Amino acid sequence: MAKPVAPRGLARERVLDAAVALFAEHGVHGTSLQMIADRVGVGKAAVYYQFPSKEGIALEVIRPCIEDVERVIKIADGLPDPQQRRVVAVSGLVEMVVRHRRLAVVFYGDPAIDALMTSDPYFKAVNDRLRELMEGPDRSDVDRIGFSVFCSGVGRAAADPELADIDDADLHRALLELFGRILTPAVQPSQP
Amino acid sequence: MAKPVAPRGLARERVLDAAVALFAEHGVHGTSLQMIADRVGVGKAAVYYQFPSKEGIALEVIRPCIEDVERVIKIADGLPDPQQRRVVAVSGLVEMVVRHRRLAVVFYGDPAIDALMTSDPYFKAVNDRLRELMEGPDRSDVDRIGFSVFCSGVGRAAADPELADIDDADLHRALLELFGRILTPAVQPSQP
């Protein structure tokens, strides 16, 4: 076995870039380690040397998103008011999704990613806390459903080919405006 | 080869029921005709006799949903006012998704279903017209993004295990209320 020629960091990036391109074309289920190795132009053993499994590669690809969300949670948790925490959580989620829009296109609705997100304890903990923050403390059924609609919708909108002509800044603004509309009754109590 | 014992209609129902159960467990990609035949307790040839392919079975499973949407489109298209058409389209979509909630759980986010929906000309035409009706005539970017968020969110909410305790009537009411909030500025123009 020859040792990798490139520095370890560089080789990892090449594997991750190739994996994202292949996931976009074939989904995670439809992509093999061999396909990733072929795309990078190395042997399968060289990929194994970096990552133990295809799922490990997918986890590494989405890890920056989860770390962004973790940072947003820390910022939100530092605030005293639940409504402030909620606003920070929503704004942070929108910023993260728009910034990683290319990944949303790759991963939106991929059941392999859904399975990873619920099976990895760290990812699941971050996701559950985000949900609590966004739903707020006195969550009604409409709030819970609104959270579900908005969270899946943010990823969907970022990934939607019909919206590819809308630039990132406009998408960001529009998503925040939409969430403001969804939340208005909660933020400005007006229900009987 | 023995002829099918059950009448054709009955056998079709049994195949479709078995397929839905397996799609829920394994996704469409992860389900084979052999698995469906095993679940029904017949040979693979008996399933082939009814359906030429796994995709054909998936199409038959979602066909009632698409036919419901087509009916909603006919009702909407009979109305003179674009805002009325929009309200009918949204209400009809929500009613359909809630009524077929079990299928939403099976199919939400399944890339095999997304591919079927865009490759079948009839399904694609129905979907495109629904989108036009819901976005309305003078669609802004926010309206287009709102449509995308809401449409994916309706299916997500119906499928969300975290919302399984909310009954169908409450889910229906809440989704309509949410869409009302999303659309409020369009229905009651208040922007500068």
From TrEMBL, chains A, B:
Q: Which residues bind DNA?
A: 32-51
User: Which GO molecular function, any one, fits this protein according to its record?
Assistant: transcription cis-regulatory region binding
Signal peptide range in chain numbering: none
Q: Does the keyword DNA-binding apply?
A: yes
* Provenance organism: Mycolicibacterium hodleri
Keywords associated with the record: DNA-binding
* Record InterPro entries: Homeodomain-like_sf, HTH-type_TetR-like_transc_reg, HTH_TetR
| PROSITE patterns for this protein | HTH_TETR_2 (PS50977)
| Protein name stated in the entry | TetR/AcrR family transcriptional regulator
Cite a single Pfam family from the UniProt record. Answer: TetR_N
Q: Locate the HTH tetR-type domain: which residues? A: 9-69
